[in-house]
Amino acid sequence: MNYHPEIKFYKCLNDYPSRFPLEARKGYALIGRSNVGKSSLINSLANSTIARVSNTPGKTITINYYIVDGNWYIIDLPGYGYAKRSHEIRTRWDEIMSRFWKNNKTDIKGLILIDARHIPNKLDLDTLMWLNDNQISYIVVANKTDKLNSSENQRLNARIRDSYGIEENLLFKTSMLKKTGINELLDYMMKSIAKTEV
Ligand SMILES: Nc1nc2c(ncn2[C@@H]2O[C@H](COP(=O)(O)OP(=O)(O)OP(=O)(O)O)[C@@H](O)[C@H]2O)c(=O)[nH]1
Ligand SMILES: [Mg+2]
After folding, report:
1. Which of 62, 80, 176 to mutate to test the pocket of ligand 1 (most atoms within 8 A of CB)?
2. Which of 35, 90, 182 should be mutated for ligand 1, with most atoms under 8 A from CB?
3. What is the C-alpha to C-alpha distance for residues 148 and 155, in angstroms, rounded to an integer?
4. Tens of pLDDT along 23-71?
5. In the chain, what are the domains?
6. Distance between Cα 97 and ligand 1 center (Å)
7. Is the CB–ligand 1 distance for residue 146 below 6 Å?
């Protein structure tokens, strides 16, 4: 499959859920550490440069909504865990995230994007636990697989399955650099959105 949906920038929000758009009812929100490739993923899915990619971690500090084929969202959430951010910004990030999920009357699933090279740290595990506690369903996408050698690549599935406790069918491996794994991921997302009833 080499289908690319029409993905358009929809809205940028930097504040509270009273202003969160509710026009479309479903979607995926990208959750991940800064610099893991969230914006790159949006560009790869769209096959065009619509999201800003940067070498400066923490660039995306707003909530960016993209609308896919006119009826569901991909939401680029601010990357978490950028060490240089102040405590105050970090607290605000937590608050925005918890309001985002709690007040969203739409059916938004999580797409946890991780760096394939790294094992989860406390922040990752806390985020995971928070999603579980709040019954938000999610998939895990291990990106930057181009940075792994072949034996690391072979061990990747088992490593992620063990550290994230996720079923294999909810685990995807991608490289935005080499453009691998994107079709499989997109295919899954489109099917799961089609099945979502809201
Ligand atoms: N080698 C490699 N580099 C990647 C890949 N995906 C993204 N990058 C690079 O990683 C850097 C960060 O990418 P972004 O897409 O801006 O990451 P982000 O998660 O949106 O970052 P924030 O918005 O800061 O949270 C950029 O230099 C990308 O080119 C990949 O699969 N392989
Ligand atoms: Mg970004």
Report:
1. 176
2. 35
3. 10
4. 657 999 999 988 899 999 999 999 999 888 877 665 556 788 899 998 8
5. 7-193 (3.40.50.300)
6. 21
7. yes
